[in-house]
């Protein structure tokens, strides 16, 4: 299954490199390096971070509804980015936006761990995450209400909907190391997540450091998803849906889901981004649909199907 | 061998165990009885090193099965048993196969634990405990929610495991099972050990702690077997 996902991902990568506003086919080298490669690689990296984070959070919290958005780390990255728009920093200095997003994600992670308390346990982490998400959403709304001019408001709102157009190699170089580092941290949690399937107490008697595992999961998710939100805005549903799509195929053992979820998340986000680019070529649209909108449109029917199947 | 000496435990500022001296030797099946809230589960959690301030035993030597043990995901029975190998950092197929065979689950190895019967799921959890090959087993009500024959099966199995040289400590509510299978009955009441003797000798104290009539009109459930 992992091999099939890797093949699908490779095909989507090639398709993504061959598709764009200039049409389908082998592009001009300048277009390839400056436009399509950064966009393609960012879609794959951000998607992999989201899919893997979803699988890790669902395993760590033993909750099939856990999702990176739930912990509010993406929300904090969004808030920091909106603040950067608000003060006009992003207009003066282009990398300020992803940097602000990264700082927001890091601060969000630190706040999350403080709020969850020293004895991290699943429910306290979820409660702290929900509180953090609500706080970030409220402050984002406040910043938008107080926007200095309609232009800043439109720019920030647009960015919050998620998208990967006009990202440069600089964005890719800025985002790739933290996302890869986050994924490396998360991929190592497999054995501990398996033990946590039996509950935190049993995991502890099996010699698994439960608090440290949850802290590493939170930090890895902050790196992978927070960085993703910093360069691509808020993209929902990927982290929630991908593990659910894969469970019937690879089984339900949390460790067995990690790598396939990373590959599946990358493939799903590439597919959504490909559709976003194809839409204006096929449909009478002035603009590409936003990526966050597309992932939600693709993800919601999948979730409805899962709910249908799970219902007694 | 597992022991707790003069342990006093308070949870949330409320004392739960008072001055407990408890030990279980290899080869011994010890049943722990007492009314709800007497502190049985707390005593087991203290033995398993799950309470703050108490030493945590080597996870390869002590295996713990909590009350209502559940698996959050639909793992297969074999995958659940394999979790018992985590302390060793391997997936030793011989240990897993042996644990499944001991629990009579070889034919169900590939079945999902959320699709088998309650008794089979219980035995899968026990197989996880056995796969660790620990010398000390700490089990919290492994016979709860089981029909009488499944309860007897589990207790017979535990007695075999004790005979093989393990120290087995098990919380039970069914005094008849304790009488038939245990080597020693420890009665806990309001956080104190009120009896610690051979099952028959400890029975009057156990019956009194449970508030059951004993003596002239002992209920049939309380009569020793045979």
How would you sum up this structure in a few lines?
The complex is a heterodimer of chains A (312) and B (226). Chain A is mainly alpha-helical and 312 residues long.
Describe the structure.
Chain A is mainly alpha-helical. Helix content of chain A is 77%, strand content 0%. Chain A has one domain (2-12, 27-310): Orthogonal Bundle (ABC transporter involved in vitamin B12 uptake, BtuC). The two termini of chain A are 28 Å apart. With 226 residues, chain B is of the alpha/beta class. Chain B folds into 2 domains: 1-60 and 135-226, P-loop containing nucleotide triphosphate hydrolases (Rossmann fold); 62-133, no CATH class. Chain B has 7 helices and 8 strands. In chain B, helix 3 (93-102) packs across helix 4 (118-131) and helix 6 (175-181) packs antiparallel against helix 7. The interface between A and B is medium-sized, with 21 and 28 residues.
Task: Please specify the SSE layout and strand pairing.
The complex is a heterodimer of chains A (312) and B (226).
Chain A: H1 2-18, H2 29-61, H3 73-86, H4 89-92, H5 96-116, H6 122-145, H7 150-160, H8 169-187, H9 190-196, H10 200-205, H11 210-232, H12 238-250, H13 254-282, H14 291-310
Helix pairs in contact in A: 1-2, 1-13, 2-8, 2-9, 2-11, 2-12, 2-13, 3-5, 3-6, 3-7, 3-11, 5-6, 5-11, 8-11, 9-13, 12-13, 12-14, 13-14
Chain B: E1 2-11, E2 14-24, E3 29-33, H1 40-47, E4 62-65, H2 77-82, H3 93-102, H4 118-131, E5 136-140, H5 148-163, E6 167-171, H6 175-181, E7 184-189, E8 192-197, H7 199-210
Parallel strand pairs in B: 3-6, 3-7, 4-5, 5-6
Antiparallel strand pairs in B: 1-2, 7-8
Helix pairs in contact in B: 3-4, 6-7
């Amino acid at each position: 299954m992992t091999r099939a996902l890797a093949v699908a991902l490779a095909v989507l990568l090639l398709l993504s490199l061959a598709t764009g506003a200039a049409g389908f086919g082998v592009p001009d080298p300048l277009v390839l390096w400056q436009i399509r490669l950064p966009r393609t690689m960012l879609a794959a990296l951000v998607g992999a971070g989201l899919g893997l984070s979803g699988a890790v959070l669902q395993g760590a919290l033993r909750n099939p509804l856990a999702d990176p958005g739930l912990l509010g780390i993406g929300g904090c990255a969004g808030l920091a980015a909106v603040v950067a728009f608000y003060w006009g920093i992003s207009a003066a200095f282009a990398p300020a936006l992803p940097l602000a997003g990264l700082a927001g994600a890091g601060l969000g992670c630190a706040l999350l761990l403080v709020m969850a308390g020293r004895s991290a346990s699943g429910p306290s982490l979820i409660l702290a995450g929900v509180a953090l998400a609500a706080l970030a959403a409220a402050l984002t709304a406040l910043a938008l209400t107080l926007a200095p001019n309609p232009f800043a408001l439109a720019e920030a709102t647009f960015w919050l909907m998620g998208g990967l157009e006009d990202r440069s190699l600089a964005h890719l170089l800025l985002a790739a190391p933290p996302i890869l580092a986050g994924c490396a941290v998360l991929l190592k949690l497999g054995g501990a997540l398996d033990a946590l399937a039996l509950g935190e107490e049993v995991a502890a008697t099996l010699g698994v450091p439960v608090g440290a595992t949850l802290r590493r999961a939170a930090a890895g998710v902050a790196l992978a998803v927070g960085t993703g939100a910093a360069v691509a805005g808020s993209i929902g549903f990927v982290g929630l849906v991908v593990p659910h799509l894969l469970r019937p195929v690879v089984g339900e053992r949390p460790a067995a889901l990690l790598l396939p979820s990373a590959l599946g998340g990358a493939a799903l986000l590439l597919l959504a981004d490909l559709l976003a680019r194809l839409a204006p070529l096929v449909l009478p649209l002035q603009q590409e649909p936003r990526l966050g909108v597309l992932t939600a449109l693709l993800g919601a029917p999948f979730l409805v199907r899962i709910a249908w199947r799970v219902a007694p | 061998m597992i022991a707790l000496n003069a342990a006093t435990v308070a949870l949330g500022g409320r004392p739960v165990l008072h001055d407990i001296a408890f030990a279980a030797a290899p080869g011994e099946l010890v049943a722990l009885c007492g009314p709800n809230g007497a502190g049985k589960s707390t005593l087991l959690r203290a033995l398993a090193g799950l309470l703050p301030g108490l030493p945590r035993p080597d996870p390869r030597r002590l295996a713990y099965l909590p009350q209502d043990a559940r698996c959050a995901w639909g793992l297969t029975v074999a995958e659940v048993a394999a979790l018992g190998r985590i302390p060793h950092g391997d997936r030793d197929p011989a240990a897993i196969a042996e644990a499944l065979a001991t629990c009579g689950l070889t034919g169900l190895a590939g079945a999902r634990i959320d699709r088998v019967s309650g008794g089979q799921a219980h035995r899968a959890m026990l197989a996880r405990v056995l796969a660790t090959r620990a010398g000390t087993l700490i089990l919290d009500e492994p016979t709860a929610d089981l029909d009488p024959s499944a309860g007897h099966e589990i207790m017979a199995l535990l007695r075999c495991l004790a005979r093989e040289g393990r120290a087995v400590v098990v919380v039970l509510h069914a005094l008849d099972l304790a009488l038939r299978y245990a080597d020693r009955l420890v009665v806990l009441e309001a956080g104190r050990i009120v009896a610690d003797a051979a099952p028959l000798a400890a029975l009057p104290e156990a019956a009194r702690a449970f508030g059951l009539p004993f003596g002239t009109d002992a209920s049939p459930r309380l009569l020793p077997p045979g």
